[in-house]
Write a structure and sequence with these properties.
Layout (H helix, E strand, L loop, with lengths): L3 E6 L2 E5 L2 E5 L2 E6 L2 E5 L5 H10 L9 E3 L5 H4 L9 E3 L3 E3 L5 E3 L10 E4 L8 E7 L3 E7 L14 H6 L8 H14 L2 E4 L5 E2 L3
Parallel strand pairs: 5-6, 6-7, 12-13
Antiparallel strand pairs: 1-4, 2-3, 4-5, 7-8, 8-9, 10-11, 11-12, 13-14
């Protein structure tokens, strides 16, 4: 059984005067009766409206995956009180329990892949779908400011500057890894795009 995915919020990042506005792309994955949110972001109203549109509530979510710890991706994780939280290596429960996930979301075929570079503890999510083949929810391995042109040819993707990058060599390797496995990529901020092969 393949996953169903829905982009609930297309991530954005922009400056208006002295203020910055940002929230990550938020994705809903449904597979084998398991409901997963990837990066709940920090735009509460947009998230609540998107869930209502899907006829879902926060308590319908089984897992929340945090691709990394930047607040524009994680701030709203606490509204999912029934969900367990997943990061690059563990599953966290509200009773203080932590266990290793071994690279998979329990009860599904959804994979968690470590992709350091933008952040040392960064991961991406790989799903198999009927409509798009292998989809990588890439978070900030690839992302764009709202006023940037989103170039998706391989050279542009590999050389795209990331002002928040922590390790250039690791980010380059993570980008290569993703481009080798994805048919489509959902970036942390910007539009979903197809990989040209």
């Amino acid at each position: 059984m393949t996953a169903q995915i829905k982009i609930l919020i297309e991530g954005y990042a922009r400056k208006t005067g002295d203020e910055e506005f940002a929230s990550s792309t938020t994705v809903l994955i449904k597979e084998k009766g398991v409901n997963i949110i990837v990066d709940p972001g920090m735009d509460r109203k947009k998230l609540q409206d998107a869930l209502l549109k899907e006829r879902m509530e926060p308590n319908n979510i089984n897992y929340v995956i945090l691709t990394h710890y930047h607040l524009d991706h994680t701030l709203l994780a606490g509204i999912f009180e029934n969900a367990q939280i997943i990061d690059f290596e563990g599953i966290y429960s509200w009773d203080g329990k932590i266990k290793n996930h071994g690279g998979m979301v329990p009860g599904t075929d959804v994979k968690i892949i470590k992709t350091p570079g933008h952040d040392p503890f960064h991961c991406v999510v790989l799903t198999k779908t009927n409509n798009w083949g292998s989809v990588v929810i890439a978070a900030d391995v690839f992302w764009w400011q709202d006023d940037e042109e989103q170039k998706t040819d391989e050279e542009s993707l590999m050389t795209h500057e990331d002002p928040y990058m922590k390790n250039k060599e690791e980010l380059t390797e993570s980008r290569k890894k993703i481009l080798g496995i994805a048919d489509y990529i959902i970036p942390g901020h910007g539009k979903m795009f197809k990989i040209k092969k």
